[in-house]
Design a protein that fits this description.
Length: about 240
């Protein structure tokens, strides 16, 4: 495992898994069942093609999932356990999430040609997120880069809107997910330090909540899907 870049908000680690474990994950990726979420998940732009995704696996430090829960729980006896173990042992995880986040999730994603994910900051109930790239090879011209904005741009800078719910008019700060003009204004006016990360095989990116990011379009000339396991660190679940 090798640190490529580390800031207060994110870390990029290469050769994250041992060779054998990485090969086990490559096989694991093709054994999963995949479906496209029929629901519009808002970070995906309406014009984006959503990726194929597997069911969710959860690590929980304190409790067992109920038998009715459709999610799988670590340890699963499959290669995804090796990834969980590596994350749990990583310094960035221990420094940022271990004490505050009893739960961690993992889901496999296949971003085929034409897939992408628009700007978002993983706010809400997450303390942080990670993405691990597990295709057998990738190419600098195939797209699928992770784009990051390093500037601190808090949600509170979004314009306040009036929303009517439960018979009351309430004020809330969010961006309009259909035209995104307010999000665009915010990022245009505040983003000065930006970074991109190639989805190099066996590379891990972990980030703290609030960091704005997006996944670039996978180009049509990519001969295979961009494969990743991604998940969240959760303060409660
Ligand atoms: Fe994200």
């Amino acid at each position: 495992m090798r640190v490529v870049k580390e800031t207060e908000d994110y870390i990029v680690l290469d050769d994250f898994l041992e060779d054998r474990d990485f090969r086990l994950i490559l096989e694991y990726m093709q054994l999963n069942d995949y479906a496209r979420n029929p629901k519009w998940i808002k970070p995906w732009d309406l014009a984006d093609r959503p990726p194929w995704q597997s069911g969710e696996t959860v690590h929980h430090a304190r409790k067992r999932l109920s038998p009715e829960d459709p999610r799988r729980q670590y340890p699963t006896g499959t290669a995804i356990d090796r990834l969980f173990e590596r994350i749990l042992g990583a310094k960035f995880y221990r420094d940022n999430f271990k004490d505050s986040c009893p739960a961690m999730t993992a889901r496999s994603y296949l971003h085929e040609q034409g897939a992408s994910l628009d700007w978002h900051n993983d706010a809400g109930r997450f303390a942080g997120a990670y993405a691990f790239y597990c295709h057998p090879r990738w190419h600098a011209c195939w797209g699928g880069e992770l784009l990051l904005i390093e500037d601190d741009i808090p949600d509170e800078l979004l314009p306040e809107k009036e929303i009517m719910e439960e018979g009351e008019i309430r004020r809330r700060r969010n961006w309009n997910v259909i035209h995104k003009d307010d999000l665009s204004d915010l990022l245009f006016s505040r983003a000065t330090h930006t970074e991109f990360v190639f989805p190099v095989p066996n590379r891990m990116v972990m980030m703290r909540r609030g960091l704005w990011h997006k996944v670039n379009l996978v180009k049509n000339q990519a001969p295979m899907a961009r494969c990743s396991v991604a998940g969240f660190f959760l303060p409660d679940d």
